Amino acid sequence: MEKKPTVQVTFDGQRLDLPEGENLAAALLAAGIQTFRHTAKTGAPRGPFCMMGACFDCLIEIDGTVRQACMLEVQPGLQIARPSAGGGDHDPE
Ligand code: FES
Prior knowledge:
Pfam families: Fer2_4. This is (2Fe-2S)-binding protein. The chain is mainly β. It is 8% helix and 29% strand. The chain has a single domain (6-81), classed as Roll (Ubiquitin-like (UB roll)), CATH 3.10.20.30. Strand 3 (37-38) and strand 4 form a beta hairpin.
């Protein structure tokens, strides 16, 4: 399999080189990032689970907007952060 060219992004201020066009959640997992957010009530760590837009455990913040990482592709210059308030109203706990 041919290796894709990488582009620079940041995750919580850490520079990462990720393969351009790859699924963002998969690329972050492959880079060793497993915790994408923490729940608002208990602070429990959450990371991608379904990889198809159903569970909302992959919520991240990009340019101030909370989005599902599994529904995005890696693009140059993404400024990614863990959502500060847990990532939304999708937590049962
Ligand atoms: S991993 Fe479930 S919505 Fe993204």
